[in-house]
Amino acid sequence: MAAIFVTGGSKGIGRAISLHLCSQGHNVAFSYNKNKSFAESLLDEAKNFAGKIFAVPMQVENRKSVQQAFSATKQNFNSNIECLINNAAISQEKPFLEITDDDWKNMHNVNLLGPFICSQEVIPEMIKSKWGRIINISSIGGQWGGFNQAHYASSKSGLINLTRTIAKIYSKDGILSNAIAIGLVDTDMSSAEINRQDGKKKIDGIPIGRIANMEEITSVVEFLCSESSSYITGQSINLNGGMYFS
């Protein structure tokens, strides 16, 4: 069985994706940056699942680190990576005029350069096998902008267009590329926003009337990893409860 690789899989949405896919019998590798204890707890939680799971340290914005992590994954599972889930990301709330050059560079290095590097590294083997899935976890912020997160919104908008570009070039090779534009989810990354008064107003404005739960995200990811998604490519799936229509 080929491997699924989830970047930034030790916490939040990435953790939920890793656990769900492994519970369904898939071989899952996930990367972590500094939170080794979180990675170890995930491994322990999934030790009796139907699939196999593997944790590897990786900096998504560092090509050598990515190459080493992917090589370790292929050696561990004795197979290629057939599905890449670009989930690793950072966020920062800061007024537009206070965003520094370093803030901008760091945001785009992790949120956009990282998925670019990871995609470049897996695509050649996907071409050889004539089958692959690249799933980019984007955000509603990449669709409608960010009031105090201009650099985050810009990086996620770029990720949506990277998704489309890969789809245009490689769909004919059996490699399908899609993005999931997530709205509000209760994660560590979004907790500050959700718990503020303006965040609560955003929740009140969601047509479904609540934020997303992890199962609603992981089920869409699993579908896009499967053969059942064989005619879907270049799409941004709006998983936002009706906050934004496109």
Layout of helices and strands:
Elements: E1 3-6, H1 12-23, E2 27-32, H2 36-45, E3 53-57, H3 63-77, E4 81-86, H4 101-129, E5 132-139, H5 141-144, H6 150-170, E6 175-182, H7 191-195, H8 197-204, H9 214-225, E7 236-239
Parallel strand pairs: 1-2, 1-4, 2-3, 4-5, 5-6, 6-7
Can you describe this structure in just a few lines?
By secondary structure, the protein is of the alpha/beta class.
Detailed description of the structure:
This protein is an alpha/beta fold and 246 residues long. It has one domain (3-239): Rossmann fold. It is 47% helix and 17% strand. It has helices spanning 12-23, 36-45, 63-77, 101-129, 141-144, 150-170, 191-195, 197-204, 214-225, and strands at residues 3-6, 27-32, 53-57, 81-86, 132-139, 175-182, 236-239. A seven-stranded parallel beta sheet has the order 3-2-1-4-5-6-7, sandwiched between helices. It is globular.
